[in-house]
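Session log. Operator J.P. requested a structure for one protein chain; no other inputs attached. Running the standard single-chain path with token output.
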Amino acid sequence: MGIATKIPQNAFEGLQLDAGVLLTQFDPAAPAVVDSAIVCATTGGISVSCVPTYSDFGEDVDNVPNNMKEFKHLDGWECTMSTTGLGTSPESIKLALGAADIDGTNTSKIVPRRDLHQTDFADLWWVGDRADGGLVACKLLNALSTGGFVLQTGKNAKGQVTLELTGHVSINAQDAMPMEFYSLDSTSAYAVVQRLTNVTSDFDGNSIASGGSATIQLTADTGHTFTNVIVLQGGVDVTSSKYSSSNHKVTLSSVSGDIEIIATANVSG
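Structure written below.
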């Protein structure tokens, strides 16, 4: 084998797998994909692009070679996400239209608008898996559909909606470019599993960032009383330091292992 016929030893860990999802909400500090945040089902994958535009100020100057680095000027970034969506919910149609409203009385009615509102811009995320169990995420800031609504139907086929989303700079943060990137390895977060019987929890995620914190409120169902609560971190029982029986809160700080919460409530009396 030649000396250049090699790949980095960590090549597998950095591979991005599968199509990923478009999300309205995502927190890299506590990475979890919540079902209600998924924009829609997609087909054909998702394209994420962040391309700079440059000017060469020496281009028309005599005796200056083309692309002299000292004369290079960064004009800006063109940041986009595009895909083919399979969703036709009111929210999906409104997203594709851009400047549009869902009727306040008839929520099945979506109406394009003559004017663009600042509320038409919203941050969107693409999140995909890494081969090592980690995640790759891209945040498109102030995203707006610039491709409009285009629905393609077909015999014995699923209707497909083209989505073209462009990020924008805000006048309130003019140095913040419209896209951010995150590459999170598998140790960046720990799993949270809740095994609840006749109990509800206000924590709907499935992970917490390494070193992160969270306060989780447990509530017994109506007519029930707590009979058992156990909190495990990395398989170790930490109930005495993490759970308060007076207010039924689990307080996690500096998380350093997978969390498991087991809570049971039985009928009172």
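Operator note: The chain has a mean pLDDT of 92.
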